[in-house]
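Appendix C: a fully annotated inverse folding record. The material below is reproduced so that readers can follow the format used throughout the book. The structure is listed first as tokens, followed by the designed sequence.
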């Protein structure tokens, strides 16, 4: 598997490899929904937490264990998403660290971004894609199921969030032989928009 870093684009979104030019736009997008950061994410990108989180994302990208993208909508940074835990030898990775401004949720942005990311990864030789969601995050769980991923189970007391809450994590996956059906479903959803 060879996973090149590149811009991914369709008529709804443009995923640009995260760079310094996205810093302030992402900061503003993250500040648009403090409640989500305070309740549903294992880390924070609010206020004083933004810079350390930014530095970690950039560091992991430079180290090759992840690739983070700015989600561009209408020329503005509307959020972020990443390939995480990239394991080229075993042809697997995780898609996560996804956040969108509230006004971009529930429409074409998430399925369009996932269509680009999953297509690029499976076209690059991916065997297994994993998506992990906080068990209390009903909105994200529903979105992952709607993508066509299979729930594999719940890892109890998986991590401690930045607020100190102990999180249970729901694991979902899409395998290479399942991708054609998932792709068709995503394409059909986006054709209706």
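Designed amino acids, in order:
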């Amino acid at each position: 598997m060879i996973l090149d870093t590149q811009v991914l684009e369709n008529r709804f979104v443009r995923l640009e490899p995260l760079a310094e030019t996205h810093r302030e736009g992402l900061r503003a997008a993250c500040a648009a929904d403090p409640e989500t950061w305070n309740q549903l994410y294992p880390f924070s990108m609010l206020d004083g937490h933004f810079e350390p989180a930014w530095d970690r994302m950039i560091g992991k990208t430079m180290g090759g264990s992840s690739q983070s993208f700015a989600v561009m909508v209408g020329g503005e940074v509307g959020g972020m998403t990443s390939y995480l835990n990239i394991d080229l030898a075993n042809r697997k990775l995780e898609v996560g660290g996804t956040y969108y401004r509230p006004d971009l949720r529930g429409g074409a942005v998430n399925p369009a971004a996932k269509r680009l990311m999953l297509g690029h990864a499976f076209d690059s030789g991916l065997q297994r894609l994993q998506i992990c969601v906080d068990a209390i995050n009903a909105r994200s769980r529903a979105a992952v199921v709607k993508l066509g991923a299979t729930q594999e189970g719940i890892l109890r007391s998986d991590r401690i969030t930045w607020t100190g809450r102990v999180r249970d994590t729901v694991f979902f996956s899409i395998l290479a032989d399942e991708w054609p059906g998932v792709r068709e479903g995503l394409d059909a959803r986006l054709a209706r928009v």
